[in-house]
Amino acid sequence: MVKRFLYSQKVAPYVFVLPFVLVFLVFWIYPLASSVGMSFQKVTLGQEAQWIGFDNYAKLMGDKTFFKAVANSAVYMVLTLLILIPFPMLFAVLINSRLMWGREFFKSSFFFPALTSVVVAGTIFRLMFGEMEGSLINSILGWFGIDPVKFLKGQVTGYIALVALATWRWTGVNMLYFLSGLKNIPDDYYEAASMDGASSWQKFTRITMPLLKPTTIYVVTISIYAGLAMFIESMMLWNGNNSPKNIGLTIVGYLYRQGIEKNNLGYAAAVGIVLLAITMIINLTQLAFSGMFKKEE
To answer: Which residue positions in the chain have pLDDT lower than 70?
Structure first.
């Protein structure tokens, strides 16, 4: 009976899917449900949780520091999207070109920063963008007669440092995604376009970009999440979670401040739920506009 059950063709698919379902329930659904419950409570370590309803969310709506963190994360996300979508795509097209030499070397060189610890990378970039004259960036500016800039003490210059770090770390990763997408485009399309007299730009806009749409949507989706959930880069760049006037404070950084530094776990849970809601709304909206939910004809 047991053997017949295990070897049943009707049961087999559920057996194979079961590990994923268990992991999904234990490590995603259960923590999410617990966080939702905590967001309606006042939770502090060593004390019994108290049900306070929507008080945490009401407090969030009047929390200027929280909105500052949301604005910082949103600007960072937009800036990274503007850089880490078109440039990796362009690099992927160039590396995939038949005229490209040293293809494997360039792929490895672009991907290598992603293997570097974010702690190490953040520390290096903090030294590079330091306010002293001997820091790398200020030394370069000095060659052009520009006075030293306090990059990590200004809002705009702080964004420059953060985006530079993100560009250095993730350009190679996104480039590999686009390279994978390019491998699925048949060469026959380009050969036919060449016979019709199409220019390189026309091939790129009429063949490459449309057929890279699924890859582009995927990269945009994960980049939106990565931009809104960024934390460690900011923490390492400012050597802590307390940047001048909160110019480097992100949503996750604010969650960490409330939950870990201030031991206000219920309020931190509310911040996390709002972050999840913002991420889902933005991603579902861009997926809807990109036509991912439309039925294929």
So the answer is: 1-8, 293, 295-297
Contacts of 46 (CB under 8 A, 6+ apart): none
Three-class SS of residue 228?
A: helix
Q: Which residues contact 120 (CB under 8 A, 6 or more apart)?
A: none
Radius of gyration, alpha carbons of the chain: 24
User: Given this model, what pLDDT does residue 7 score?
Assistant: 65
- 259, 116 contact by CB (below 8 A): no
CA dist 207 → 182, 213, 255, 295 (Å): 10, 10, 44, 22
Q: Which residues contact 34 (CB under 8 A, 6 or more apart)?
A: none
- The predicted pLDDT at position 252 comes to 94
**Cα distance between residue 93 and residue 87, in whole Å:** 10
Give the CA angle between residues 47, 50, 53 to the nearest 5°: 150
Q: Which two tokens stand for residue 88?
A: 């990796």
Q: How far apart are CA 38 and CA 36, in angstroms?
A: 5
Total number of residues shown for the chain:
297
